[in-house]
Amino acid sequence: MDSLTGYKADVLNYIDSGVCHLLSFRGSLTHNTHDPSTQSFDDIDAIGWFSNPLAKYLGVYSGKDTKEIKINQYDIVLYETRKFLKLCSQGNPNVISMLFVKPEHHISYDKFGKELLTNRDMFKTQLVARALLGYAGDQFRRAKNSTIIAPAHRGYAGDKRKKSIAEFGYDTKYCGHLIRLLRMCKEYLETGELNVYRENDGEELYYIKKGRVPYEPIVLLADNLFQNCQHLIKAGALDQFPERPDMEFVNELSMSAILYYNGYGY
To answer: Any idea where the domains of the chain sit in the sequence?
Structure first.
């Protein structure tokens, strides 16, 4: 059994595949930057889309719109239908990337998950580029903060990550995300493609994450990529994309998935 098959079996052991319309890996495994060693701070990340029982939509007490499952090295987050499709429609990088991972990185899907994947290009909108830049800016601020805040006070970091920050003087994981997001944004503006799997720069991003690249060159590269993206936007690169997806399709998909899950045809 290869590693990916084993990871899928583990995730399906924690989550009944019948619960999710779509269940996929995300994070380093899908970015081509995963480090499976015991010293790594990488998790096996997965994301899913589920519907609640109908009573949660019609009754007084609404159901949860987010479920998180953390078991050993597995970090799984599930989003309820309306929240999930709203995040996709907004171009949220953490969610929409799920639609553009390699086929082998999907764990399971039903007919609604398949329909969403078939129509994934509908979600390539202007909002995606703006969201990628916004998330990159957030990673940049966090990376800069990590160089000036004592590791013991970084509440977001686990023990392995705190050790890494103390060793290299900055948060290497944030810096890896920063460069990846900016390159994805630049490629998206140039080609219209959302390249989640980092075929050409996966090794470089891995080296950044492992602290093998000094902080100063990373900052210079990030500044240059930010400028490239802003220049492309000013030159009209956003015009190739619609402002937002077809919300009639999104709404119909949402209603169909919820009703089907509750036994009402479709």
So the answer is: 3-119+246-261, 126-240
